[in-house]
Amino acid sequence: MKQSNSNVVFLIALIVALGGLLMGFDASVISGVVGFIEEEFELTKLQLGWSVASLTLTATLAMMFAGPLSDRFGRRAVLRIAAILYAISAIGSAVAPDFNTLVIARMLGGFGVGASLILAPLYIAEISPKELRGRLVSFNQLNIVIGISLAFFTNYLILQLGKSSASWVESLGLAEHNWRWMLGLETLPAILYFFGLYFVPRSPRWLIMNGQEEEAQKVMSRIAGNERALEELDRIRKNIEEDQDKEKASVWDLFQPSLKLVLSIGIVVAVLQQITGINSVFFYAPMIFEQSGLGTDASFMQAILVGLVNLLFTVLAILFIDKLGRKPLLVFGVAGIVVSMFVLSYGFNSATYTLKGEDIQSLSLAVDLSSVEGQVFESSDDFNAAVEPLMAAELWEEKGQDVINAAIELNTYLILTAILAFVASFAISIGPVMWVLFSELFPNRIRGIAISFVGLINSAVSLAVQWIFPWELEVLGSATTFMLYGIFALAGLVFIIKVVPETKGRSLEELEKLLVKND
Question: What domains does the chain contain, in order, with CATH numbers?
């Protein structure tokens, strides 16, 4: 391919992949918001979890309908709608007067998340030459990770700017409305995405599917040159004809006895990717760090480290997945998750709780806590049992976590290292490898419906994990919560070692013969 044509394709892919950045940003920006909205709207832990998880619910619904809608109206058109939904969601979240309005605005953004998650890589794959397809499609996954990191960074930046005495900071209300600015900032890249899509041509595959071959040839000539365009268009036509001749698979076909092994692998990997708690870390990072006794500023700063580690190890996964193979990365990464979660559980379980005089003064609770001043409690249960009766029920509900955070004493460096090791282990293994496995495990005839099925399970588990995480921290405690994640990871590791095959270097036909057991 000529350099000029290659540059055009790269530019188009970068613009479309901005949808991945918006998705990562929209999903993770809530991490800096939860502590503020919990206090402002007086939320229960389950309500707090719902403010995070509600986006995943609508994103899952959008994933189910985005494909058919894009077949009818075009990939680019639906992506533009997604950009509009991102902008409306950002503005609506920023100005939300109450909890229900905030949730509705977040759910609107979820429709954009689901649509861009499906359609951005689909469009890039359809417009890319085969020799560049893998690299260009990976732009979207990379942008998702960049979006997560950007959300952590802008949350911290807004928090710091809010402390400035500059007149423009005061006029914008960055101090008293910091969480609203965190959510509203997404409006800018959403608008940029909307207008950027005007410089993106319609998918040549979609154009041919809808009988617009003349425009399809113009688009393909622009990105591949006239000679190559004719070859590519002929290949697309033949592929579309073959798809039309195929009998459409139904979800019931997945439960044939011959597919028991591949379906079991798909379901276990889909569940494992989420049940080990990755979105608990991404969406509640500052909350977790505050549980270890860090102040708000330090917890936001360490969340930035989470984003950067995630970015670095995602890049490494992209570089090594075809060199080392899928299974070695999975075994190494999930083993790292097991160790990280057990270390986290140990770190929180070994914590002690002591309220010092300066801690009591800084809390400014207007209650007498002198009877517990200086006492060392070996567990959070003992500490809570001693302190809670000294405070009114409403005050404990509102400020109890602040009291615990002030009293806790543990190895914060151990906690930070374990969380970063967990994120690194996930990002180099089951995070990106899961989707590669899904594209390779299932036979051609049912691949589309199978990936949708296990993807739906993955989203459902993600929704549940996000929703109940604040409740788990409150009721079970940090040590037990992370221990559970570690146990799930250990069970998954055993399954991977014993059952999951290596797919590197094998054709899809070879894998089908190996994994599909026809009687």
Answer: 1-200 (1.20.1250.20), 352-409 (no CATH)
